[in-house]
Automatic annotation (TrEMBL), chains A, B:
Positions with a binding annotation for substrate: Q155, R176, E213, E239
Biological process annotations from GO: organic acid transport; transmembrane transport
Database matches in PANTHER family: EXTRACYTOPLASMIC SOLUTE RECEPTOR PROTEIN, PTHR33376
Name of the protein this chain belongs to: TRAP-type mannitol/chloroaromatic compound transport system substrate-binding protein
InterPro entries per UniProt: DctP_fam, SBP_TakP-like, TakP/all3028, TRAP_DctP_sf
Organism expressing this protein natively: Advenella incenata
């Protein structure tokens, strides 16, 4: 009851601020929005990316389009962030869409699927491969206009209490994991669990869970999981890259002057790469520190990777068989990914692999 | 003589349009600039990226900051694009800085060095690793403020009339190549030549040169080089990625209202990824078509890659020994690259390599 009245009140405030703006002189209009981020402030890279985006929008509009960022739980809990935008409680959010696959598994195409496209390929699919049109069509049914406003890159594969020697070690393994990767894990015989970040450490320490994935070295370091689960596996195949989304309430969006729409879209596009590049700047040092503190870094065994890949493909086929959005997006997405993979194997990957190997020898 | 008087006249026009703007009401001010692109219009991806950037700047400023793009040769030939910005003939350009290494080899850090950072790492170095500050300091001496406004990714290694079986085949090889890669080739015993794009086909056909690198499949296809030099080698190690630069005349920049500066910077950052993603969308199909037309795609032999890598490292040491800018930037850049390589080997590359291999098997 309390929750409901709060939602209604917030919605009123949000819409009023838009409706009050004069429709005539667009350039003189002032708009104030709220962005509900899915992160606490201490996840400073990802939360900071939301702040940087809103700061940029302010700069581009001479302060006339002001968006205040709220950390997770301040307005709604993470799980209600999509509803909050749909119903106008807030004008926009800053989330990983994969958190809402319970509503519609096809939302996973927005964040990225397991063994999906990398961050650069995903941007290409969205903006030059028809991906954004497909996602917008899906989101429109929820009264939302979506923007890809960041990416954290390939995540780490998580912290494990015991060494993973082969696929057999995944049978019955209780792992804290978010998003569509959890559905893949189930197919591999493991047990996926949803646990709030603040409870991961204690759950691993007590042995309530055997493993937990969080994000990458920079964010993982803050949770101190290496002390209770020293085996640090890579790569985080759960998402080929994890793109961040800002969902915007459709009615609020349509009331914006064109210049503000452009400012929002441009700042979002800018943050896609900025967020990724910032993580790339932060992760190397954090990884070194984690290793110095006892983290045992290993690649997942080959049979684990192969089983996860096969389980993923089987899952996509199943989901395409029972969800219309998934059925529509999947073949188009898959064809684009195959093209990208073929192309990256020709120029990018051979040079990356050669150069990285040489630099490693030089060290 | 004609050239000189044209330059002076252009400079006058450019500066007048800025000086005439009122200093008081920044939002009412209108500014019109010229951007001299290093490309003909028919290189539509790269030229289009310059146009998209300027279009975005227009949209962000409600048409008040208008930048018209001119194709190569319309205002000045490519080789004079840096001088043209330095002396105010044009307010800005759209180029690969590596074209101007004759003035200062350290300009190569802006486009990217042979076996240098990939497109994503380069952006991280620029914006989160101190790279932009180092480049700005260097450019300031030429009266220029620089922006990274695009990237074409790893290029192809070029078209060869004969098969390259080993490093020995590079001895005496006459190759058309731009940028710092030409200096590396010299160390490998080859002969680097500068030939205008329009003359590459005839030079290969006649045998005046043995090989030529241009850009990547999409742009290469337009030159039809597969008909006269069927061996298509990869990867283009000459630059780990090739970042595009917009150099801006410092005086013109300083006269801009803050909002226009922000619009320019944001549109430039947006295009960095947009240009790259657009090329990724275009290259796969072009490569397939080239192969269908007879291009014989091969990886450079291992000894060629290793010799090119060693020659590159030797060249950087030499250049650092005789050029103050190179000496200042190189150690900082190299340390950042090593960190990035170590990090990419942990998460990004293992997942990319695994996924690309699997997708290739599936096809």
């Amino acid at each position: 009851m309390k929750r409901r009245s709060f939602l209604i009140k917030s919605a009123g405030v949000g819409l009023a601020s838009v409706a009050a703006a004069p429709a005539v002189a667009q350039t003189a209009q002032k708009v104030k929005w709220r962005m509900s981020a899915g992160w606490p402030k201490n996840l400073d890279a990802i939360y900071g990316s939301a702040e940087n985006m809103c700061k940029r929008i302010g700069q581009l509009t001479e302060g006339k389009f002001q968006i205040d960022v709220f950390q997770t739980g301040e307005i709604v809990p993470y799980s209600q962030n999509m509803d909050a935008v749909s119903n106008g409680t807030v004008e926009c959010n800053h989330v990983l869409s994969t958190a809402f696959i319970g509503k519609n598994p096809a939302l996973a195409f927005d964040t990225g699927l397991s063994f999906g496209m990398n961050a650069r390929q995903h941007y290409s699919w969205l903006h030059y491969g028809g991906g954004m049109d497909l996602l917008r069509e899906m989101y429109a049914k929820s009264n939302i206009v979506n923007f890809a406003c960041g990416n954290v890159g390939v995540q780490m594969g998580g912290w494990f209490r015991k060494e993973i020697k082969s696929l057999a070690d995944f049978k019955g393994l209780k792992m804290r994991i978010g998003g569509i990767g959890g559905m893949v894990l189930l197919k591999m015989g493991a047990i996926a669990q949803q646990i709030a970040p603040g409870d991961i450490y204690a759950s691993l320490e007590k042995g309530t869970i055997d493993a937990a994935e969080w994000i990458g070295p920079y964010d993982d370091e803050k949770l101190g999981l290496n002390k209770v689960a020293p085996y640090y596996y890579t790569p985080g195949w759960f998402e080929g890259s994890a793109a961040l989304t800002s969902m915007v309430n459709k009615a609020a969006w349509e009331k914006l002057p064109d210049t503000f729409k452009i400012a929002f879209e441009t700042a979002s596009n800018e943050q896609y790469m900025a967020c990724l590049a910032h993580y790339d700047a932060l992760n190397p040092k954090a990884l070194r520190e984690l290793i110095a503190q006892g983290a045992k870094l290993s690649l997942f065994p080959k049979d684990v990777m192969e089983a996860a890949y096969q389980a993923s493909q089987a899952l996509w086929d199943e989901l395409a068989g029972k969800n219309a959005d998934f059925a529509k997006i999947y073949p188009q997405w898959k064809a684009y990914q195959k093209d990208q993979a073929a192309w990256f194997r020709v120029a990018e990957s051979p040079l990356d692999n050669f150069t990285f190997r040489q630099l490693n020898k030089d060290q």
